[in-house]
Amino acid sequence: MHHFDVETLTAGRWRNDGGATRQIASRPAGDEDFVWRASIADIDRDGPFSAFPGVDRTLTLLAGDGVRLSCPGVFDRLLERAGEPFAFSGDLALAAELPGGACRVLNIMVRRGRATARVERVTGRVVPPSGHAGVLHVLGGHWQAGTDGPVLAPGQGVWWDADAQAPGGAVAPLSPDATALWADVAPAG
């Protein structure tokens, strides 16, 4: 497992200068034709979202007053509750509107036909299925990766490859207020 802290990840500005992305993991590493990718995005202003043809995306609000994603004739969705994932096709040309100012989101992307992703809010022990990759991002409380792994606080987390085994077999909550987002990335069918 690989540990991350959002605040120490390198931020890269978007081409349209509407925000910045902090990449957690991309597999294969450095490959534009990724199978899966996880990142944290800081959205600073209204504007277009880049299309990712052939990619399925799940966006989850982490902080801020929300973001409205719209694609004329397809959907108009306000993500206003932190920790509620929203899945959509990366093929779509979307517009983002920030009704309450800047926000931060977790962005999980998988290449259609090569991987699938399920993102959910969890409060209990997470045991990654064998052969799956994934990310666990702490929203609240404290968590521990394995029996001897680091104690994780909000804004921190762990990620693993499909061929890795979680240390101690699980990521477990350590406090009663522990909540996290778990992105389970499975090989496609």
UniProtKB/TrEMBL annotation:
Organism the protein comes from: Streptomyces gardneri
Domain of life according to the entry: Bacteria
InterPro entries according to UniProt: RmlC-like_jellyroll, RmlC_Cupin_sf, Uncharacterised_HutD/Ves
Signal peptide extent: none
PANTHER family for the chain: PROTEIN VES
Protein's recorded name: Cold inducible protein Ves
